[in-house]
């Protein structure tokens, strides 16, 4: 099966400043490699033959590093935004997308099997598939439950809330792309709401493995710390 991927690599990386003043976020190093190279190597291992990098901020540095992908034995090309287009807007600029393709952020460290994720979406005929991770958030306060007249009905000391979050990895069908307007910024949140309004909801596929978004300094430091000890989970060889 031919597999195609689009990596969103045009963000400003504002949460990682001052690091991203010099380097675009996708070129931030994790171990011996920029995070974007780790992703590209993973996609190649998963049988993806064609990768498009949607670029904007410091695009020339990303293009200089990856060029046409020949070094890795994969076809890499570029889609350049002249204005910020959000998460989903860049897809309208790419004219040769297949019926189903993977879209993901360029700053994710995960051991998700991209080939399985791709093929399950195609097999099930989904319009849009979201890879999700269950996260826990500890509330640092005592939580008061109240009823009528403000009377206390319960008390929870620093409870933990569980919720599903998007991992920033998606499978997209050409039908979903038709809902993305031409021109202007258009995000993942807008597309999800528009698909819901159209009666074509996305499918959420839970993932139990490792996932870290390196967009925040604390998470980036954790990724650097864990990458070497867990290297075989992310890279073959």
Automatic annotation (TrEMBL):
InterPro entries: Mannose-1P_guanyltransferase (IPR050486), NTP_transferase_dom (IPR005835), Nucleotide-diphossugar_trans (IPR029044). It comes from Rhizobium aouanii. Residues 5-226 form the Nucleotidyl transferase domain. This is Nucleotidyltransferase family protein. Gene3D superfamilies: Spore Coat Polysaccharide Biosynthesis Protein SpsA, Chain A. It comes from the Bacteria. Coiled coil: none annotated.
